[in-house]
Amino acid sequence: SLRGVQMRGEAAHLSVETAEGPVELAADHVIAATGYRPEISRLPFLEQIQGDILTINGAPLLDRSFESSVPGLHFAGFMGAATFGPSMRFIYGARFAAERVSRHLSHLGEGKHRAGRMAVKQPEQAGATV
Question: Distance of CA 28 to CAs 9, 11, 23, 73, 101, Å?
Fold first, then answer.
């Protein structure tokens, strides 16, 4: 368990409680992996359509344009990590997501059909839920 952090010069000094007792670590960089899970059920404003959104372990199943199984509902960033990988959890993935979503939306504005719609025949087989 993390007990405290102090900067000393250019290094971060972490006080950590381990099974063997307290330990102090010095590091150049610290990355906090909080363990948050993306879950549609945690978004109360989507309550009326939650049952229409296909999910993988609670996260929305997305097509290549970040669109969910509800037409017009896109998820980028953290909520896209289950489909597109862990880079979506960070700023690094924002450009990729923005380009995909904006390309999809611009095609819709041109009167083209839904270019990126997913075809999910049996969601149970892919570990998805309805």
Answer: 10, 5, 17, 40, 36
Is residue 29 classed exposed, middle or buried when 0-12, 13-18 and 19+ CB atoms within 10 A define those classes?
exposed
d(CA 129, CA 17): 39
Contact 97/80 with Cβ under 8 angstroms? yes
Contact 69, 118 (CB under 8 A): yes
**In the chain, what percentage of residues exceed pLDDT 70?**
73
Can you say how many angstroms the Cα of residue 121 is from the centroid of all Cα atoms in its chain? 24
Report the length, in residues, of the chain.
130
Residues 6+ apart with CB under 8 A from 92: none
Give residue 35's pLDDT band: very low, low, confident or very high (50, 70, 90).
low
